[in-house]
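User: Here's a structure from my thesis project, written as structure tokens. My advisor, Dr. K., wants to see whether a designed sequence matches the one we expressed. Can you design one independently, without my sequence as a hint?
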């Protein structure tokens, strides 16, 4: 199979690139090693659209964060992505931290980001559950929270609707080059393309080495989290940061897009690129730091702990044509990568053009998308829909009020999930208090029936995460 451009990696950067490339006439494919998109760093992160005051002025992170924030606001409206502009606060509790807040203010101004410094009294007026020790804070009104998985899904689904091919379970095994064309062996198939965009996240250096590149090293950095029940969801209404350190932005306390609360992450170098284990000492540290910001968090309402990994390749992103001609790296996309991805994708188009790719905008581009969500509809609209299709009246996930009809809709999308966690990432079924204890068996059955496959072929998440292996009392 031959393409003009092949994207390697189906995280938020790869999906954003696929979306942006789908606006043009050149032929694009995306290869993802897992059985779904957004299974790496995009799966477990802080789910924040950063305002853009934190990166040092003049860096790629500063450039892409500010532009990416603006684009994320637009894309959320156009593609119907769960999104809420909460704004964000960076708290100062000491004279040293007051100076840091002023430095962040100067960064924000230099980066073209709306920011202001507000007094401790004003912080407490807006957020009365924040510690009364706060002296002042940086306020950034364009900070927001988003569903990162639905962000990625919306981008790749729109890309596929506009002609991009997406190949899942297609881990890259080999890259060679002959007569100016790359040949990629992935998922038992061979693909050819003149250009490669390497958005392979935690494995970007390994992919680059396959193409003959050298000099890139990815370090996996783990961050752990507490996720709280919705009973804690209203304790703060904005994203609450502490002053950053050399290890990162510090422990955050923030609402989620689905009405929960979380605290985290810390920052530790991981032992392996798939090490998403959690640790009592790290969680204890997060707890200690979180109550410094919000003392009234009730940790008995914790419903899940999890960890995510960031791909670190230095102090800045790597977005450029590499030393291997026509091989473009979009690597080391740590925080604020989720916020920056749409802007990185725009720049990748420019880089491809500079490499010699001819750009012609499509005359017709389907750039709108709508998702039916029963829990956002009026009772009258729900009743009308249920009369038309009774599947929308059968509630499967009670915690989140997700119906059978919505799950069937997801399974008919252009890039349909093949795992129960893939359903969870697209509609939050299983993210509530019971963490799937009630709804997962029903989702399992709906998936098998709708997809027409045996139940044993439905995974919990990635390949090998079997739920059942066969029927009992088989001969």
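Assistant: Designed independently from the structure alone:
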């Amino acid at each position: 199979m031959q393409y003009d451009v092949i994207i390697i990696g189906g995280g938020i950067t790869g999906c954003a690139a696929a979306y942006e490339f789908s606006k043009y006439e050149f032929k694009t494919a995306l290869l993802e090693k897992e059985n779904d998109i957004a299974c790496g760093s995009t799966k477990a992160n802080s789910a924040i659209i950063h305002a853009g005051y934190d990166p040092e002025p003049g860096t790629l992170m500063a450039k892409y964060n500010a532009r990416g924030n603006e684009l994320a606001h637009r894309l959320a409206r156009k593609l119907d992505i769960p999104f809420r502009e909460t704004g964000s606060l960076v708290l100062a509790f000491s004279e040293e931290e007051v100076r840091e807040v002023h430095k962040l203010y100067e960064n924000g101004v230099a980066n073209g980001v709306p920011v202001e410094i507000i007094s401790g009294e004003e912080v407490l007026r807006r957020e009365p559950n924040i510690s009364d020790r706060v002296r002042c804070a940086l306020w950034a009104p364009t900070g927001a929270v988003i569903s990162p998985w639905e962000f990625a899904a919306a981008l790749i689904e729109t890309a596929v609707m506009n002609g991009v091919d997406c190949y899942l379970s297609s881990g890259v095994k080999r890259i060679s080059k002959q007569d100016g064309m790359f040949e990629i062996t992935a998922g038992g198939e061979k693909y050819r393309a003149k250009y490669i965009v390497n958005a392979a996240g935690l494995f970007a250096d390994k992919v680059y080495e396959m193409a003959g590149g050298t000099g890139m090293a990815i370090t996996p950095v783990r961050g752990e989290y507490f996720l709280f029940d919705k009973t804690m969801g209203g304790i703060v209404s904005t994203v609450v940061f502490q002053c950053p350190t050399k290890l990162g932005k510090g422990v955050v306390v923030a609402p989620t897009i689905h009405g929960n609360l979380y605290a985290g992450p810390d920052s530790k170098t991981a032992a392996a690129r798939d090490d998403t284990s959690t640790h009592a000492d790290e969680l204890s540290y997060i707890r200690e730091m979180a109550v410094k910001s919000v003392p009234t968090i009730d940790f008995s309402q914790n419903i899940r702990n999890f960890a995510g990994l960031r791909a670190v390749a230095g102090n800045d992103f790597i977005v450029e044509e590499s030393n291997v001609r026509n091989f473009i790296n979009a690597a080391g996309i740590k925080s604020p990568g989720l916020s920056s991805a749409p802007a990185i994708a725009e720049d990748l188009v420019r880089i491809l053009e500079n490499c010699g790719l001819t750009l012609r905008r499509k005359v017709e581009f389907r750039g709108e998308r709508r998702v039916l969500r029963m829990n956002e509809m009026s009772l009258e609209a729900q009743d009308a829909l249920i009369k038309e299709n009774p599947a929308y009246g059968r509630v499967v996930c009670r915690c989140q009020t997700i119906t059978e009809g919505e799950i069937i809709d997801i399974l008919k999308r252009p890039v349909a999930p093949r795992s129960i966690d893939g359903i969870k990432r697209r509609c939050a079924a299983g993210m509530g208090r019971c963490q799937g204890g009630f709804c997962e068996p029903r989702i399992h059955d709906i998936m098998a029936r709708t997809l027409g496959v045996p139940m044993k072929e439905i995974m919990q998440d990635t390949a090998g995460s079997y739920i059942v292996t066969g029927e009992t009392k088989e001969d």
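When you compare it with your expressed construct, this may help: The chain is about 30% helix and 25% strand.
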